[in-house]
């Protein structure tokens, strides 16, 4: 079958990295000595966590590759990238472009809602994402309260980069008083009235009690939750409880609340199987992939999580064809030669963006629904 042939030929999509030994995030993990079964389990868990943390380097390298070739404009990506650019395959660069452009569009629409009020964005597993810096530069007049959550190893690395980058520091300080920026003694948390980086294992939000305090989080500001390739790494039950804590405890009704997710789908076909195997070889387990394997299941998940105002989803192939105008697609096509159109489309059908919302109590006239009303969702006919 053609699809199996293509699947067998797809590259190990995430193995296209250069040497990462000089990246300096304490990535090495030596072989364990003799340990009790309990200790061994802990070691295994911490090794798994390290591998998940390292996926941020892949995201960052992919961003830099797409920026260096002109797919995307991002003045801040280079600050988070060490050494030479690890150039990705053309289909990966196009995927990075489509994903970033799609999320940017939805975020812009979110920022257009509730025009007289400040907005809050909470990015789950933000890693070294540059979106905060890009947003405050492109929307200088918006009152934005931004929170990024990630493991302490990743937040420490990001804060360290910020401390050593005049460009990043200048960008933060042009939106907040420099004296109000606080960095914790261990260097893992940064707080300010506008930009906050919290060291947090998201699984701590899945607990019933002792929910960690997130300094400067507003319980009432219209909020967007963003999970760009993050919740996929957690067990489905944890993600349900994490979303419950966010939607009910940290951001309870009637706070207007919305969520954008980007993650892989379609594990069942030959391409999906190869994608899973490639990642498993690196110790990466896409834990929610089977639970939310289709656009319909992603939409149902958003509804179940309380985003009852509306839910939409589209795969990246659809997004590239339908959201991006011909002129822009022509421009992207000129960034580099891509003749593997079938491979690109196959790859792009295995990633999706899903978005859902709940407006504040009192009806507010479906503010999010209106803002996102002209963003075309895709109907997969309810398949799982
Ligand atoms: C593939 S990276 C994506 C980074 C960023 N969102 C982007 O798209 O550029 C996944 C991120 O999720 C974070 N992450 C995964 N599980 C997490 C958890 N339990 N707690 C905190 N962060 C987590 C990882 O550390 C990593 O930074």
From TrEMBL:
InterPro entries cross-referenced by the UniProt entry: LCMT1, Ppm1/Ppm2/Tcmp, SAM-dependent_MTases_sf
SUPFAM superfamilies: S-adenosyl-L-methionine-dependent methyltransferases (SSF53335)
UniProt biased composition (Basic and acidic residues): 36-51
Keywords: Methyltransferase, S-adenosyl-L-methionine, Transferase
Coiled coil: none
Species, as recorded: Tothia fuscella
Role of this protein: Methylates the carboxyl group of the C-terminal leucine residue of protein phosphatase 2A catalytic subunits to form alpha-leucine ester residues.
EC category: transferase
Native organism taxonomy: Eukaryota, Fungi, Dikarya, Ascomycota, Pezizomycotina
Protein name: Leucine carboxyl methyltransferase 1
Record has Methyltransferase as a keyword: yes
PANTHER family in the cross-refs: LEUCINE CARBOXYL METHYLTRANSFERASE (PTHR13600), LEUCINE CARBOXYL METHYLTRANSFERASE 1 (PTHR13600:SF21)
Record GO terms (molecular function): protein C-terminal leucine carboxyl O-methyltransferase activity
UniProt similarity note: Belongs to the methyltransferase superfamily. LCMT family.
């Amino acid at each position: 079958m053609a699809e199996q042939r293509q699947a067998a030929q797809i590259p190990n999509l995430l193995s296209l990295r250069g040497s990462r030994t000089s990246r300096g995030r304490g990535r090495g993990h030596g072989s364990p000595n003799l340990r009790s079964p309990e200790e061994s389990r802990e070691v295994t868990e911490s090794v798994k966590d390290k591998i998940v943390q390292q996926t941020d380097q892949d995201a960052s390298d992919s961003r830099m590759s797409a920026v260096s070739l002109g797919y995307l404009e991002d003045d801040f990506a280079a600050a988070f990238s060490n050494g030479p650019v690890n150039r990705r395959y053309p289909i990966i660069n196009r995927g990075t472009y489509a994903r970033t452009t799609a999320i940017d569009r939805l975020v812009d629409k979110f920022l257009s809602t509730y025009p007289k009020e400040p907005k809050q964005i909470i990015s789950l597993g933000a890693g070294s994402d540059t979106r905060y810096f890009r947003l405050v530069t492109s929307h200088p007049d918006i009152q934005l309260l931004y929170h990024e959550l990630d493991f302490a190893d990743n937040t420490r690395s990001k804060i360290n980069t910020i401390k050593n980058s005049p460009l990043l520091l200048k960008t933060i300080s042009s939106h907040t008083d420099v004296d109000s920026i606080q960095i914790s003694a261990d260097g893992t948390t940064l707080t300010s009235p506008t930009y906050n980086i919290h060291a947090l294992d998201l699984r701590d939000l899945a607990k019933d009690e002792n929910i960690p305090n997130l300094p400067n989080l507003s319980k009432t500001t219209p909020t967007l939750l963003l999970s760009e390739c993050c919740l996929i790494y957690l067990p489905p039950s944890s993600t349900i409880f994490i979303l419950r804590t966010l939607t009910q405890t940290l951001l309870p009704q009637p706070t207007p609340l919305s969520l954008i997710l980007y993650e892989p789908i379609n594990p069942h076909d030959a391409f999906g199987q190869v994608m899973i195997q490639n990642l498993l070889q690196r110790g990466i387990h896409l834990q929610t992939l089977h639970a939310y394997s289709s656009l319909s299941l992603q939409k149902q998940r958003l509804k179940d999580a309380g985003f009852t105002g509306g839910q939409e989803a589209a795969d990246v192939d659809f997004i590239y064809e339908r959201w991006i105008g011909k002129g822009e697609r022509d421009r992207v096509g000129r960034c580099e030669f891509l003749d593997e159109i079938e491979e690109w489309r196959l790859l792009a059908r295995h990633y999706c963006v899903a978005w859902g919302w709940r407006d504040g109590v009192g009806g507010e006239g479906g503010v999010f629904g209106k803002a996102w009303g002209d963003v075309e969702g895709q109907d997969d006919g309810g398949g799982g």
